[in-house]
Amino acid sequence: MPTLTPMRFTPNEIAEAVGIYASNPAYCRGSGEYDPERIAPEQVEADLREEAGGDGGHVLLARDTEGRAVGLVCLLDRHPKDGYPWIGLLMVHGDRRRRGVGRLVVAAVEERFRRQGRDGLRIAVLENNPSASAFWSSLGWREIDRRRDIQLGRPCIVMHKPLT
After folding, report:
1. In what order do the strands lie in the sheet with 69-76?
2. pLDDT surpassing 90 at residue 27
3. Cβ(87)–Cβ(73) under 8 Å?
4. d(CA 134, CA 136)
5. How far is CA 19 from CA 72, 104, 106, in A?
6. Rounded to an integer, what distance in angstroms lies between the CA atom of residue 75 and that of residue 7?
7. Strand bridging mode 155-162 / 3-6
């Protein structure tokens, strides 16, 4: 089971996060936010600080038993429009994909919110990322809406998972 620890934004953690992004070139291309050939540490840091800096925002690094960063997850405790907690981003290091890391991280996040008494959790998945939609569906999440994201206007599938 990976451990989830709050990102402190040390130079080493920024480098680990850049490595996670760089190991996912298809996501970088599909999201339109990053050039997979040139992941700028300053951009990754700024984006993750923005995620962590909002009210109830968290960036957590997932580490394996040897302490290596194997993924990251951005969380929002309470969305201002619907009141649900949201996963803003889940990214598993490319070398660790399809090994159950993402499932374990999601299970830990679900349990975190379940312990807080929350009854559901949401995520928006880019429509151009069918493997992500399939991943979330395999974990029991269901589509509840389609809309464009606020940041860049990209078409998204909003998914929900009851936690009760």
Report:
1. 3-6, 57-63, 69-76, 86-92, 120-126, 155-162, 142-148
2. no
3. yes
4. 6
5. 11, 20, 20
6. 12
7. unpaired
Token pair of 140 as six digits: 């029991």
Please answer whether residues 81 and 122 qualify as being in contact, where contact means their C-beta atoms are separated by less than 8 angstroms.
Answer: no
Residues 27, 127: Cα–Cα separation, whole Å:
12
Average pLDDT, whole number, for the chain?
A: 94
User: Cα–chain-centroid distance for residue 81?
Assistant: 19
Residue 98: its pLDDT value, please? 82
Rg of the chain in Å (alpha carbons): 15
Would you say how long the chain is, in residues? Answer: 164
Query: What is the rounded CA–CA span in Å between residue 96 and residue 103?
Result: 12
∠ Cα 149 31 119 (to 5°): 50
pTM passes above 0.85: yes
Buried b / exposed e over 101-138, threshold 16 CB at 10 Å, is bbebbbebbbebbeeeebebbbbbbbeebeebbebbee
What distance lies between CA 140 and its chain's CA centroid? 17
- In angstroms, the CA 149 to CA 139 distance is 23
